[in-house]
Amino acid sequence: MVGSVSQKLAHPLAGTYVGKGKLEEIKALREDLVYDLVLIDDELSPGQQRNLEKVLDVKIIDRTALILDVFARRARTHEGRLQVELAQLQYRLPRLTGLWTHLSRQGVGGVGLRGPGETQLESDRRELNKRIVHLKRELAEVHTHRQLYRDRRRGAPIPVIALVGYTNAGKSTLLNALTGADVLAEDKLFATLDPTTRRVGLPGGRDVLLTDTVGFINNLPTLLIAAFRATLEEINEATVLVHVVDGTHPNATEQIATVDEVLEELGADHTPVVVAVNKVDALSGAPASDDQAMLAALLETARTDRALPVPIDAVPISAQRKWGFDRLLSAVEHAVEVEADVVAVTMTAPFVRSDLVDLFHRLGRVDETRYDESGTTVVGHLPTADLGRFTPYAVVTASPDPVAYSPPASVDSAADSAA
């Protein structure tokens, strides 16, 4: 980048986005800066883009085009490429006019046709529309396959935990560290475009499915939200969301607000959320080891001094160093059991019904297992919705009692432990 300019306006001008004086200033800068490209940090209308290119006589790229280009470079799977191409074509369609001079030429009329024939612009627009229809059809098939997969997943009642967060917050690194997956994790925007799901065990022994999702970004183009709708639907299927926050980012407050806005737009704002503040090992004053009391004190300082808008029970973690994972998984387990309305249960099943013991392990949390001549006795917790599967061998022994969990230690407790 050779330079930048900004202008404070109540709203962008309909014709040229910026005012006439600012436009002349940008044009005059070309002699000194010798620029050949102008990037606008906002979405331009087709008319604004054409007018700016006409006045400045250089290529104009807006925020949406840049993000689409980044997505195109990152897409690796067939579905990801289809989604990005669809968004790119939908973006380009209204911008065909003026892109190339040949688009205004008249085509040759055929025998028996009236008039001189269609323009090249009309021909290109028709081809783009045909390609868009084809891509939507392919993505609909992908969506059908995903829906069948989700239906099968519902049949095997394993809770789904979706990792959400601003792009480059460390979601893929966290998935890899928790599950041993090999998802691409790089320090750059949108390194992950396709959801990846892996199984992980919670402290109580229950397995859950952990899903990585595409990172969010401020002012995410509507075209991308629409194109990645099938991918983002993984978030709506989740039992619990883990909101991964980059605790070191100077714009963490704005990033958190952006994630909340996108979740609301997707209709997932009522799903239980566990907030994990990542990269705490890089905060000033971070300990040299996984000292949760000190990390909690560090996070509390960030909440007060930097006004970091995270709840008091947010979990400090370092996906890179694998810090805070026990507390994070305990918090997830707590959220899962609260959402499932878990009750304390004692089940005594005869040895011939060992399948019920296995099912108990998969659906609930086992606290104790005993064996005697009557069979296997399992003491633990089960979701109320699944109690019928264990009739007549299971007895509810207490009111809902989710897995014991306490929020990170306060500053006072951290100081006490240090003393």
Helicity, as a percent range: 40-55%
Q: What gap, in angstroms, lies between the N and C termini?
A: 51 Å
The number of helices is 13
Strand segment tally: 12
Mean pLDDT: 81
Beta-strand residue percentage: 15-25%
Strand order of the largest sheet: 4-5-3-6-7-8
Largest sheet: 6 strands, mixed
Low-confidence parts: 98-115, 400-406, 409-419
* Category from helices, strands and their pairing: alpha/beta
Order of helices and strands: HEHEHHHEHEEHHEHEHEHEHEEEH
Rg (CA only) = 27 Å
Q: Based on CA inertia axes, which overall geometry fits?
A: elongated
Written overview of the protein:
β10 (365-372) and β11 (375-383) form a beta hairpin. It contains 13 helices and twelve strands. The strands form three sheets. A six-stranded mixed beta sheet has the order 4-5-3-6-7-8, sandwiched between helices. The radius of gyration is 27 Å and the shape is elongated. α3 (63-74) packs antiparallel against α4 (78-92), α4 (78-92) runs antiparallel to α5 and α10 (292-305) packs across α13 (411-418). 41% of the residues lie in helices and 17% in strands. With 419 residues, the protein is of the alpha/beta class.
Secondary structure elements and pairings:
Blueprint: H1 20-33, E1 37-40, H2 46-56, E2 59-62, H3 63-74, H4 78-92, H5 120-155, E3 160-165, H6 171-179, E4 196-201, E5 207-212, H7 222-227, H8 229-236, E6 240-246, H9 252-265, E7 273-278, H10 292-305, E8 315-316, H11 325-339, E9 342-349, H12 354-363, E10 365-372, E11 375-383, E12 394-398, H13 411-418
Parallel strand pairs: 1-2, 3-5, 3-6, 6-7, 7-8
Antiparallel strand pairs: 4-5, 9-11, 9-12, 10-11
